[in-house]
Amino acid sequence: MTFLELTEGPLWYAASAIFVVGVLWRLAGIVRLGGPRDLSVPRASATAGAIKGIFLHMVPHGGFFSRTKFHFFAGYLFHLGLFVLVLFAAPHVLFIEERLLGFGWPALPRWGFILVAEATFAGLILLWLRRLTDPVMRQLSDGDDLAGTVLTFVALLTGCLALQESHDSLRALHMLSVEVLMVYFPFSRLMHAFTFAFSRAYTGASYGRRGVVP
Amino acid sequence: MTAETPAATAIDRFVTQIGAQVAAYLDACVHCGQCAEACHFYEVSGDPRHTPAYKLVPLARAYRRHKAPFARLKRTLGLAPAELEEADLREWQDLIYDTCTMCGRCTMVCPMGIDIASLVGLQRRGFAAAGIGPEDLFEVAENSRIKGSPLGATPKVLAERIEWLSDEHEVEIPLDKAQADVLLTVSSIETMKYPQSIVAMARLLNHAGENWTLSSKGYEATNFGVLSGKSDVAKLMLTKIVEAAESVGAKLVVIPECGHAYGALRWTGATMMGRPLPFQVMHITEYLAKLKREGRLKLKPMAKSVTYHDPCQISRRGGATEEARFLLSDFAQDFREMAPTGNANWCCGGGGGVAAIASATELRRKVFEIKMQQVADTGAESMVSACANCRQTLDDGKAHYEWDREIDSLVEIIADHLVEA
Q: What is the per-residue pLDDT across B25-36, written as a single tens digit (0 to 9) for each?
């Protein structure tokens, strides 16, 4: 078995299993903790508040934009870029079609990939620099923040190197880096990719009852 | 876990209180630090320690070590955070108490929508159980337990005050009626510092023709149990009001101008009591707005230029943001909104019990500089609010800086402009 076959075969299946089971386990582990039922008489709908909360916190509100525009631009640049790369990079679409779903969708052209990849890198690097230099972020950050950033950066970098499809080993390296990221994911703060919705919805529901979604 | 040390007690309280909502919050925080941009204490100090998310570190550590999914696995592998020690709690004391008013402004800016204020409240309950916190705040809470009121307004003191106010202002203030539709509660800050506020509420209730009363069984709305983290005191204070309301058959309990008292009874009271409350709860501004909507509140117009300071627990965390504005509309001829306003308004700096913590005074007064600037930008002569705790904080700032603007109570100015039939 070649290195590529190893990363596309057993390691891929193992990483996928850990990722899926780990994420579900962690989400179930949060939800199963439950909590007391809110017995106050609601002023408005908790459900509507939860939905509003999920969408409201996607955009700056309350007049804070001038203070948080760095996070807004760098954050969206990185997150949207990553989303597009994961789902629309041509090799990914092919991989999804052949290995996962049996069908695909139109992929990014090569120039589109390069543009989005550059934007994604720019966003990630800006956020990383901010974490390293801003006193507030330095005060908050820990090893998990660093590990998540480094693993994502490496996965992005190896992905770009593998685009050329010139060497099997580059493709294998990308597979391996993504697999490490997937294994690390459920145990780390990268879980915010899922928990964000729970957090926003809980606040939206609790305060939605009060007639306000902060 | 046996809770033998203060740290173990705190950890135990943290862990038992962590449900799905708290876990989701702690697992969603990405340490972006944007919450600092919303915090008045960080705004005036520039100290990264004052970042709201940083205030959650003790709770987050206990969660990751003891309750989070994979906590056992991480402990086994030596990857869980270190156990909290008493020194950690003492290091965080000023962050949990002195520099957080639980105003909730940070939630607005948080991309995850984390309700940091409620998590600080949860931590206070752990700290208080461990006996770690500001002694002056704890003493005020203990006063509530022993005397029935944080500032020593015992039932006897209340009765004397009521009699005096009733005579002095020639207003009927019923105390301990056997049956009433409305139970009015008071804040001890009003009883001891702003008694004219009680007179104003009495005049308004009488004007509306309500069958109302105060009750010596449950009159104190201010709940320093909630603010200090002493859960038993919190429940005791709530129970007194609930039982008083039930004993007179009240359909409505009116909360005076006190922010957290409103949140305590209106939004957490039933859950804390473990049963739905058999009466409606309204903040006085909500009640007056209702009277106005029903055409039961006739006011003379007020010419003075005014702006409104939103008490955090009434507006941003209470949902009654528009009630005060509805009351001021038409009536205040020159009303000017400050910026930011409404749900995004800056806190007075003294909420969440901070006004009772002596070691917090210097920073709290610096926070008042934000408010002075906000009011100066409107050019208004007077700042009105609807929270006695905000009012005493603002009055303290005014005296300290010898500020030239007036600070008023919304209820009092409304009572002063009543058109008596």
A: 999 999 999 999
Does residue B152 sit in the same domain as residue B240? yes
Contact B319 A211 (CB under 8 A): yes
Mean pLDDT across A108-114 = 94
Give me the CATH number covering residue B69. 1.10.1060
Beta strand B280-283 with B212-213 is: unpaired
CATH of domain A3-32+66-209: 1.20.950.20
Facing B51 at nearest CB: one of A29, A35, A139: A139
Per-residue pLDDT of B121-150, as tens digits, reads: 999 999 999 999 999 999 999 999 999 888
B20, B67, B343 member nearest A62 (Cβ): B343
| Residue that is written with structure tokens 């922010």 in the block | B259
What is chain B's mean pLDDT, rounded?
A: 96
Domains in chain A: boundaries: 3-32+66-209
Which domain-ending residue is among B133, B150, B184? B133
Spatial separation of the C-alpha atoms in residues B269 and A143, rounded to whole Å:
41
Strands across the sheet with B382-385, in order?
A: B332-335, B302-308, B382-385, B406-409
Please indicate whether, in this complex, the C-beta atoms of B30 and A189 are within 8 angstroms of each other.
Answer: yes
- Residue B202 near chain A (CB below 8 Å): no
Judge: A145–B48 Cβ closer than 8 Å, yes or no.
no
The interface pTM score, or ipTM, of the predicted complex is 0.96
Residue B286 and residue B144 share a domain: yes
Same-domain check for residues B144 and B182:
yes
Chain B segment 89-148 residues within 8 A of A by beta carbon are 104, 107-115, 118
**Is the domain of B226 the same as that of B366?**
no
Give me the residue label for tokens 């804390």.
Answer: B272
Q: How far is Cα B154 from Cα A113, in angstroms, rounded to an integer?
A: 73
Instruction: Tokens for A5, please give them.
Output: 């076959």
Interchain CB contact of B64 with A (< 8 Å)? no
* Smallest CA–CA distance from A137 into chain B, residue: B33
Strands B182-184 and B252-255: parallel
Domain coverage including residue B284: 136-290
To the question of pTM greater than 0.90 for the whole model, the response is yes
Q: Which residue has the tokens 């990014």?
A: A108
Which of B109, B275, B279, B370 to probe the A interface (max A CBs under 10 A)? B109
Q: Which residues of B touch A212 (CB under 8 A)?
A: 315-319, 321, 343
